[in-house]
Amino acid sequence: MINQTRRRFLESQIWPHVQTPAQYVGGERNIVVKDHRDVRGKLAIGFPDAYTIGMSHHGLQVLYSLMNRRSDWCAERVFTPWPDMEALLRRHDVPLYTLETFTALSDFDVVGLSLQYEISSPNVLTMIDLGGIPLESSDRTMADPLLVAGGPCCQNPEPMADYFDVMITGDGEPALPEICDLWLELKQKYRRDDGTFADGEDGRRQRAEALAVVAGRLPWAYVPRFYQPEYAGDRIVALNRLRDDVPETIAPSVISDLDGTPLPTEPIVPYIDCVHDRIAIEIMRGCPHLCRFCQSTVIKRPLRIREVETIVQAAIDSYESTGYNEISILSLSSSDYPHFEPLVHRLHEVFKPLGVNISVPSLRVNDQLRTLPQLIGNGRRSSMTLAPEVARDDMREQIRKKIKNSDLIEGCRVAFQNGFESVKLYFMCGLPGEREIDLDGIVDLAEQIATVGKEVRGRYARVTASVSNFVPKAHTPYQWNGMQHRDYFHWAHKYMRRRCKIRSVKVKCHDVETSLLEGVLSRGDRRTGKAIRLAWERGARMDGWTEHLDADRWWTAIEDAGINVESQVHQPYQMMDKLPWDHVNVKFGRAYLEKEQDRSTVQLAAMATVQS
Predict the structure, then answer these.
(1) DSSP state at residue 4
(2) Exposure check for the chain: N or C terminus, fewer CB within 10 A?
(3) Stretch (H or E) spanning 179
(4) How confident is the chain (612 residues) per 10-residue block, as mean pLDDT?
(5) b/e per residue 128-153 (b: at least 16 CB within 10 A)
């Protein structure tokens, strides 16, 4: 049931006046369009970033496919419009709409947004407001959609807590259908005979009652309005329940049988180039390694895999429904998949005759890397990407990433022998206990690999050391640590660049202001939501894109919201301190994290005596 009136207006008055209008028109291959009169429930699946980013996100395709398999629900997509599109929608009083039927967000039963990146928080407010929904949960009635958040940013739900009705951690596949069905049941309970709902205070009270049922019945559903933070100075000291029938802590949603969970085999094919224009197949969820800096390895436990034939058949079906010429196998660490070699052999056997390239990102640096370049071949690829994170053995012991430089170097040698021309290495700067020799090691390792390229190919290989600024994230053993200051990051970046002697080696460092803002937003309590709203009201849009980020606007908003950045970001927590995200549970729990942090502290003391 397409809203043809709205579509015709967009076609004549708006799309001709915006950049890249194809991202707003819908109609792509493999979309699912259902008549709203034939379904019980309507779900809008949103991604708070541009279409080119959202359409590259595998999770969106998974949930879209999952819900549209059901005959009683429709699932439609919505993304954050660019500022030019937003301005025209507001000027013409056109609400933010879904791409399948051009329906306003306010007309859906449930709106689910995936929170992937803290800096994109203002985009969430743009979508809610432009979609015709009250910004804060407390102002909504049963006539408004249920606003649900998922994704990694929900590991600390507090900064965005005022804007969502429910926030979910863990796997979305079991959680989303259940919460959608429950909300329809609750809506029916409060619907009046004429099909309308109560407004004003009665409507808000009814919504609170319905949300209490959600919080009490679904252990993984965090309903922030029923929890009141208590502060002492600049930090939280308690999170008090306002009702006895909601849980003290929130459990993650977990898929037990990943292999039995269908993959999206008819993914939508965009009209325009996106970040990832290829088939993506998730082969494994979770990671067998327990790196202390990594939030993903904590929140995606336990480790679950798909069988080889499940993956291959899904790849065949996806190829036949899209025609893509590249297939990417996805996981946190693809080469740790227990049947990795048989899988790659089968994929090459099936797809090489068709001219389809097999992409294997997230390669593990271990002795297997010495043979991987021969196994995966380079096809149309000329570059290999690896994530050693740090360059010295004692620092690797500290972060619990058990890799060896010898494996990395020999793996790169084999890659150069098999036609690869360049290597990209991911490192981190600002880790606990970092020393000058650790920065030296990053440059030295990059130059050593470039030299190996010269030995193999007769000229120095192109090597890019991409250095991110470490942010201690929730639910990692490093969550108690403070983040390094601005001056340190600027010094470290300049130091590494100055040490580079080989022209084919580049050190590219992440923007310091962006990383510091990520620290504020990822480590904040509920008061941080005020800063997000101030930044949004003052024009923050698409700040995940460097050219749109105005750091000064953010720092002013943070100051005006009364946030003490030194306390929130840079000062470490004591082990027994209350953390803003303690009410969210992860597998193994806080006791495991405390043990790992204690071990880290002992290792740091030993490292501090090493100068060379």
Answers:
(1) H
(2) C
(3) helix 172-190
(4) 95 97 97 97 98 95 97 98 98 98 98 96 98 98 98 96 97 97 97 95 97 97 98 95 95 93 95 91 90 88 94 96 92 87 91 89 63 58 83 89 86 87 94 95 97 95 97 95 98 97 96 97 97 98 95 98 97 95 86 89 80 50
(5) bbbbebbbebeebbbbbbbbbbbbbb
HEC letters along 278-303? CEEEECEECCCCCCCCCHHHHHCCCC
Give the model's pLDDT for residue 300: 87
372 and 386 in contact (C-beta within 8 Å)? no
CA 64 to chain CA mean position, Å? 17
- Report the alpha-carbon distance of residue 565 to residue 416 in Å, rounded: 46
Rg (CA), the chain: 25
CB neighbourhood size of 548 (10 A): 13
Residue 284 confidence (pLDDT) = 94
Query: Could you tell me if 399 and 456 are in contact, meaning their C-beta atoms sit under 8 angstroms apart?
Result: no
Compute the Cα dihedral for 533, 536, 541, 543 and give only its sign.
negative
Alpha carbon dihedral 140, 144, 150, 155, in 10-degree steps, equals 0
What separation in angstroms does the CA of 314 have from each of 60, 363, 375, 539? 17, 22, 21, 43
d(CA 147, CA 64): 16
Distances (CA, A) of 63 to 107, 171, 174: 20, 10, 10
Rounded alpha-carbon distances, angstroms, from residue 51 to 26, 60, 276:
11, 11, 12
Q: Return d(Cα 290, Cα 334) in angstroms, integer.
A: 15
Structure tokens at 249: 């802590």
What number of other Cβ atoms are within 10 A of residue 421's Cβ? 16
> Do the beta carbons of residue 49 and residue 542 sit within 8 Å?
yes
Q: Residue 552 belongs to what H/E stretch?
A: helix 551-560
Q: Alpha-carbon distance 549 to 511, whole Å?
A: 11
Burial class, 4, CB count within 10 angstroms (exposed 0-12 / middle 13-18 / buried 19+): exposed
Q: Are 363 and 372 a contacting pair, CB within 8 Å? A: yes
* Spatial contact of 126 and 80, defined as CB atoms under 8 Å apart: yes
CB neighbourhood size of 198 (10 A): 17
Contact 541, 548 (CB under 8 A): yes
- Strand 462-469 relative to strand 422-429, pairing: parallel
Query: 117: which 2 tokens?
Result: 């990146």
Number of helical (H) and strand (E) elements in the chain, helices listed first: 20, 17
Are 329 and 376 spatial neighbours (Cβ–Cβ below 8 Å)?
no
- Residue 519 is predicted with a pLDDT of 98
Q: Indicate the pairing of strand 462-469 with strand 221-222.
A: unpaired
Could you give the count of Cα atoms lying within 13 Å of 314 in the half-sphere of its Cβ?
Answer: 25
Q: In Å, how far from its chain's centre is CA 186?
A: 30
Looking at residue 66, its pLDDT comes to 97
At 393 the three-state DSSP class reads helix
Sequence letter at residue 494: K
Return the structure tokens found at 178. Answer: 């259940």
Collapsed DSSP state (helix, strand, coil) of residue 98: coil
Given the structure tokens 């058990």, which residue do they identify? 402
pLDDT of the residue at 592:
86
- Confidence (pTM): 0.94
Cα dihedral angle (320, 321, 327, 331), rounded to 10 degrees?
A: -130
